[in-house]
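help with these tokens:
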Amino acid sequence: MKKLGAKFWSVLIIFGLMGQIAWVVENMYFNVFIYKMFRASASDISFMVAASAVVAAVTTLFIGALSDYISKRKLFLCGGYIIWGITILAFALIRMDILTPLAGSMTAAMSLGVTLVIIMDCVMTFFGSSANDAAFNAWMTDWGEEGNRGKIEGFNSMMPLVAILVVFGGFMFFDLDQAKSWILIYLIIGGCTILIGILGLFILQDAPSVKTERERIKKEGHAYGYFATVFYSFRPSVMKKNPLLYFVILVFAVFNISIQIYMPYLILYYEKGLGMENYVLIMAPAIIAAAVVTALYGKTFDRLGFAKSVIPAVAMLIVGFLVLIFTKSTIPVFIGSLFMMCGYLTGMSVFGAMIRSQIPDNKAGQFQGIRIIGMVLIPGIIGPAIGAAVLKNAETIINNDGTTSFIPNQKIFIAALIVALLLLFTLFFLFRYMNRSKRRQA
């Protein structure tokens, strides 16, 4: 087994955490940003998430293959984080005091603000997906092998929860109803992302297998073209050789659809639906506990395999949904959120480790596109659309400026639960296929 030293774990934690902090701000707080600053509707939020998902999938497909073709993960990782940070800084300029004179009225400025946020979200996603979804995930796959993938994935899957904790804790000190708070937030997150990219130039190393692959490609004189590399994972012959990989990705998509039904509206549900202005203090202990569980749970995949480790994760997710559907008081909501977060992150850990274990050697970048289709594209389009549909007739409130805003309700968890039950159905067929494959091989 490859020896993974302190430098590897340092890079994994630093790049993984900073990347997830940026994604948390995008996935959980851009929705709050356009809701509070520009009175966005549920449909606006759904469209923004879907557009970002499309950009993320296409970017990861092309840039992941390009990182294989050039065989230099470090270039895309460090350069990507630097430019990613610059695009985050740009959001500090999207505010009403700048847009109102340009648009001519407050209503037009709000509409323009929603449009600009969606466009810039797509731009930011392009560079973020190039750096994180494509290059960073391929880098982790390069260094992993049987015996350590679960451990690597466990630590990596813990990063989103730690990032949520960092962001929630940091945002406690800001009044998110004030534009000046958002300006400072974007300056801090963007600046830190740039600094991490610069730091990576000095501490990040490509895996030895990537260097070997680079030498092979150079020796063969790029025997296969770039676009052949891009669409490698879509070849029928490749699918035929790796059927289990594609089956797992399909089931993974169902898992993530369930998550994306409620996730874009989660903070707004706590704050507006439940009236919990101190939701950060309530969620922080749940996030810390879930982070510990996720870090330890990664080893379960290495010891017990996929089937025995994914079922408890889905069960925790379902329990969380049930509690959140039937309760509104603080303690039960805390318990439901804890189970929901544990199920979400441990599920991501197990599915991620299983997918990486099925990716052919030295082709990690070429399979990041197909992975992101199951993880982001399909769920990012279907999940938020279901969430917006169930919130279509949600209760509304009148804001101080006379505009109206919707109030998220528990229907998002009911819809997520239905899809989670469908997930159990798809897992049954996946397990049966895996057992048949083992019998054939025996």
DSSP finds 17 helices and two strands in the chain. The mean pLDDT is 85. The longest helix spans residues 106-143. The two ends are 25 Å apart (CA to CA).
